[in-house]
Structure formats: structure tokens, C-alpha cells
Design the sequence.
């Protein structure tokens, strides 16, 4: 059995790697997250920074900061003053932000009632930390950002993380369906399936094709995960989260391979398989978006027990680092049970005449 | 060699094969003739095991190997070369690599595919594809070969190559069951003729006896008459003694 299955896997690889679709797929998996990240950076409001800043204190550190900002040629967009009544000016919207120092901690204070003040201060925080603060030499000073400032810096990353489960589902399903369509529907259309089933036992054909497709799908998922990690600067809350994400995505890849192959097996023409597999891509992707954006309750019993959807739901919690181990185990067990049942169904189908007629 | 007893096959409510019995002998070429839609391809698929009968029995000796060529119905993998396709199917039939190469050389001497068999199959003409699918069918040197309309859709030269190949197989004492509409194949290649009509074998006779009944030796008209006539009643006239 082993040598026959290996022979089938080898042939499927030959067919796949000679197909231009394979190159397109690798490109999509590699570049989708960087493109998404860049796109969100562009889409998320990013007006050019123009900020009026007041340095509150007359201390050495504040004077150094004042000098550093004033002497930097890139600071035309920063109007900086030294002020003794900075809070009054902030209240009157005469300035956007105060550079304040207290107990060796520098902080940027925005007007809490002005959106433009909060927004421009948040953007200034990143520049302030990376450019100006690093240019002065005061080791005893620490810079503390507020939550808003922190979130503003990571906004595109945070948005990519929100979209990530849906993008992964789309990449995984779309990636396998192109190859799965040819594996059975293509064989049926060309009538090579008859030569094939005359040459070897039918379940071997299923296992060979499924293993080849699952390997391609895992490879594709691995590339996408790597690209995601790089684009978002390792967005996982811990190495365990990263590992669990890999486990979830691997099971999802195998399930997607099996679903696409089952669809292909039921279709006589490649186009028919393409159409149905496109629907099967849209359906889980749409449901994932609905779960991620809380249009469907994540804790609803149907979401918990529905294969694929429950795994995607668990996967999105793993990425965010607020996963629940019992929910995760339940999703994995249900998904594996679903995979086993679908394999048994496929064996039954491939042994029937429906594959030929 | 092959014994078919009381075979039945339906597709939905349509009865394709009805109580068909037939014996195929060793070292003989049996031509299966019948109108379009008579069930010739279905019978070949049933014998090859691609389809399962609803009722009846098909028995072979245990150690026999079978090759099947589905003629114009079968295609190749476009991204693979002919050589890769032949080797793929040979490996699926558990052939060792050294034997595969030897067998490819043997087949190349007759089918002459070496000029193109390292090119992708998508560049092949119909005749080239037919040669490669033939090679796939016989790569494991089967004792019994099923051929479904092997020359249909081929030009004269390609059809000639196929006929030449069948003659080569005949000299190698293979049992061949060939479904055909080609009168030349029927009269010159076959040892026996089985005429399929209404899902049954209406005539099963040695080829020479079959054509003896042809008054003016007009084989084509004679066969058409037999295909359209009340062949059940005429069966006894063709029985070999």
C-alpha cells in the first residue's frame, strides 16, 4: 500500500508543481499579510502630523528635549514652546500636548476632551520615543505611553490581527480548492479515473491524493503563518499561543483539503467543482468574519459544535491570547471526528460506481 | 479464459445488459459488435472491474492479468510526459523499475513513440495519445486485453499503427476482446465475433462462419443487416460445430 500511495503522491506533486496556479498560490500566501498590513496603514486615517507642544518643566531633561526638537531639521511640523502655564494652554486648545516629567518618568499629556489632541499626541509619542528621546542621554529617565498612544502605534497590526482568522480561512480553502478540483473532477473529465481505478485499489487513490493535497495545504498555511508573524512582528501573546495557532491551522488545512477533495469527487467537470468549492470558500470565510466581528455570538452552542467554525473561533481567541483550554480541546476533538467521518464517507463513495457514472 | 454468466446491468431504470452470457477463449481475438448504445462499453467496463454487475458472474483464472484500453474515452495527464504517464501506471501495477524500462523499449519498437514521449502530453495529437494509452494498457504484459473502439477518431496512419500493434499482440498469443465498428478489424483481425443486441449476445460465432452466411460477400451490408435484423432467431445458424 505504502509504495502505491507514495507513487500517487509523487505524481500529484509533479502535476501541482508544474501548474502556474502553484506559483500564484505561494505568492498569495507570502504577500497577503504584508499587503494587508500596508493597505491598512494607508486606509487607517494617517494625516500628516502637525503638533503644538509645550515643555512644562525647566529641568535639565526638559531643556535637552526642547533643544533636541528645535535643532532637528525634521521638526518643521512641531511647534515647541517652554511654558509655565501649559495646562491652562492645553485646556484652551492653544497647544495639543504637554511634555511632562515627574519622578524620572516622562509622559505626553493630551487634552482629554479633544480628539485631535489625543490623536496627534498618540502619533507624536512614537516619534518622540524613537527620535528625540533616544538622541538625549538621560539613562535615569523612562518614557511611559498611555494605552491610547500604545494602541495608536499598533493600530494596523491590531487590525490585521482582527482580520487574520478570516484571511487564513480564505487562504487555506482557496489554496487547496484549485488543486483539489483537478484531482477527481479533472480525472473524471479526462476519463483517466477509469485507467486509475483499473490499475490500483480505490482507497489508495483517495489516500494518495488526500495526503498530497494536505501536504500542499500545510505548506501553504506555513508560508502564510510565517508571513503573518513577520508582518505583525510576532503578534502572539506567548510561544504557546503561536504553537496552538499552528495546531489549529494544521487541522484546518487538513479539513479544508478533505472538504475540497470530497467536492471534487462528486463533480464530473472541473468547472462544476470550481463553482462549488468557491462557495465552500466563501461560506467559512463569511462565517469567520461574522464570528470575529461579533455578528455571531462566539459562545453560541452552534458555533461551539460546528466543525471548522468552532476551530476558527478558537483560533481567533488563541491569536488574541485569551483562549480557553477546554473550548480549544472541544474544537480540536470535533474537528478530528469530522475529518474521520468524512474520510469514511469518501472511502464509501470512491468504492461505489458513482465515481464513474 | 473468461466466463460470463447471466450478467445484468441497469443504469437507473434503463436496462443495458440483460442476462448476457459469453465465453472468451485463450489465444483468440473476439470482436464485440453492436449498434451505438448497445452496451459494448458497459460490457468492457464490467469485465475490467471498473463497473460492478447488478447480477451475474464474471470468472477468470486466478493468476491472469488484465489490460484495458478505453479508446477515445481515455485521455492523459496534460502536465506529464508520455514517459511519466507510462511509468506512473506501471508502478501502480507493482512493476519493478528495471522491468518498466525494458518493457518501454519493447513497446517503442512497435508503437514508435520515442520521438515524442518526453514531451508534455498537452502537445500530443490524438494518434500520439492513443499510442501512449495503448502502451499504458499493455505495459504489464497482460494475458487478456480489453480494447474499446481502439481506432475510433484516428487518421488512417494512426489507425494502421494500432492495427499493426493488435496483430503483434495476436502473434504473442494474447486473448483480446475488442469492441469495434471497423469492418477491417472485424474481418481480418478477429477469430470470433460476438454481436450484442438488446443487452444480450445475439450471435457468438467464429468469424469465418459469420461471413460464410454473407451471400455476395458484402460484409458491411451483411453486418448492418445482422445488427438490425432478428438476430435471436439466427443465432443457431452461426454456431460453430
Sequence:
Amino acid at each position: 500500500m505504502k509504495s502505491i500511495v507514495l507513487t500517487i503522491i509523487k505524481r500529484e506533486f509533479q502535476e501541482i508543481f508544474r501548474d502556474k496556479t502553484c506559483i500564484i498560490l505561494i505568492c498569495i500566501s507570502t504577500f497577503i499579510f504584508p499587503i494587508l498590513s500596508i493597505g491598512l496603514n494607508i486606509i487607517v486615517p494617517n494625516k500628516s502630523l502637525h503638533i503644538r507642544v509645550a515643555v512644562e518643566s525647566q529641568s535639565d531633561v526638559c531643556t535637552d528635549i526642547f533643544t533636541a526638537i528645535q535643532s532637528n531639521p525634521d521638526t518643521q511640523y512641531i511647534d515647541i514652546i517652554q511654558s509655565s502655564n501649559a495646562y491652562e494652554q492645553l485646556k484652551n486648545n492653544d497647544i495639543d500636548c504637554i511634555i511632562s516629567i515627574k519622578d524620572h518618568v516622562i509622559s505626553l499629556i493630551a487634552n482629554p476632551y479633544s480628539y485631535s489632541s489625543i490623536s496627534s499626541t498618540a502619533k507624536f509619542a512614537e516619534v518622540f520615543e524613537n527620535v528625540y528621546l533616544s538622541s538625549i542621554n538621560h539613562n535615569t529617565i523612562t518614557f511611559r505611553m498611555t494605552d491610547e498612544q500604545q494602541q495608536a502605534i499598533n493600530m494596523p497590526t491590531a487590525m490585521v490581527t482582527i482580520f487574520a482568522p478570516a484571511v487564513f480561512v480564505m487562504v487555506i480553502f482557496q489554496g487547496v480548492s484549485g488543486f483539489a478540483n483537478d484531482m477527481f473532477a479533472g480525472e473524471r473529465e479526462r476519463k483517466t479515473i477509469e485507467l486509475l481505478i483499473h490499475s490500483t485499489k480505490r482507497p489508495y487513490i483517495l489516500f494518495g491524493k488526500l495526503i498530497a493535497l494536505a501536504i500542499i495545504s500545510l505548506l501553504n498555511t506555513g508560508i502564510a503563518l510565517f508571513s503573518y508573524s513577520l508582518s505583525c512582528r510576532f503578534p502572539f501573546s506567548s510561544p504557546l499561543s503561536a504553537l496552538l495557532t499552528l495546531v489549529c491551522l494544521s487541522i484546518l488545512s487538513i479539513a479544508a483539503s478533505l472538504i475540497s477533495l470530497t467536492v471534487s469527487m462528486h463533480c464530473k467537470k472541473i468547472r462544476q467543482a470550481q463553482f462549488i468549492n468557491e462557495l465552500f470558500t466563501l461560506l467559512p470565510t463569511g462565517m469567520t468574519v461574522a464570528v470575529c466581528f461579533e455578528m455571531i455570538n462566539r459562545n453560541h452552542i452552534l458555533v461551539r459544535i460546528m466543525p471548522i467554525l468552532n476551530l476558527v473561533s478558537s483560533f481567533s481567541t488563541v491569536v488574541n491570547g485569551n483562549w480557553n483550554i477546554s473550548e480549544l480541546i472541544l474544537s480540536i476533538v470535533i474537528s478530528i471526528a469530522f475529518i474521520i467521518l468524512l474520510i469514511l464517507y469518501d472511502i464509501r463513495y470512491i468504492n461505489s460506481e458513482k465515481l464513474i457514472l | 479464459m473468461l466466463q460470463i454468466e447471466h450478467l445484468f446491468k441497469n443504469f437507473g431504470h434503463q436496462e443495458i445488459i440483460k442476462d448476457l452470457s459469453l465465453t472468451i477463449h485463450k489465444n483468440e481475438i473476439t470482436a464485440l459488435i453492436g449498434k451505438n448504445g448497445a452496451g459494448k462499453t458497459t460490457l468492457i467496463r464490467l469485465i475490467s472491474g471498473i463497473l460492478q454487475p447488478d447480477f451475474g458472474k464474471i470468472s477468470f483464472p486466478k493468476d491472469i492479468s488484465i489490460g484495458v484500453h478505453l479508446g477515445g474515452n481515455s485521455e492523459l495527464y496534460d502536465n506529464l510526459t508520455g514517459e511519466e504517464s507510462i511509468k506512473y501506471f506501471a508502478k501502480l501495477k507493482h512493476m519493478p523499475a528495471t522491468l518498466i524500462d525494458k518493457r518501454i523499449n519493447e513497446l517503442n519498437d512497435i508503437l514508435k513513440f520515442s520521438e515524442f514521449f518526453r514531451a508534455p502530453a498537452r502537445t500530443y495529437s490524438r494518434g500520439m495519445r492513443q499510442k501512449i494509452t495503448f502502451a499504458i494498457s499493455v505495459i504489464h504484459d497482460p494475458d487478456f486485453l480489453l480494447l474499446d473502439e481502439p481506432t475510433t477518431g484516428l487518421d488512417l496512419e494512426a489507425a494502421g499503427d494500432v492495427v499493426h500493434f493488435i496483430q503483434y499482440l495476436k502473434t504473442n498469443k494474447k486473448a483480446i476482446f475488442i469492441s469495434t465498428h471497423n469492418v477491417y478489424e472485424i474481418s481480418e483481425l478477429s477469430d470470433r465475433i460476438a454481436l450484442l443486441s438488446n443487452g444480450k449476445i445475439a450471435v457468438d460465432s467464429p468469424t469465418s462462419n459469420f461471413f460464410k452466411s454473407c451471400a455476395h460477400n458484402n460484409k458491411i451490408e451483411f453486418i448492418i443487416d445482422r445488427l438490425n435484423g432478428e438476430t435471436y432467431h439466427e443465432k443457431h445458424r452461426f454456431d460453430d460445430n
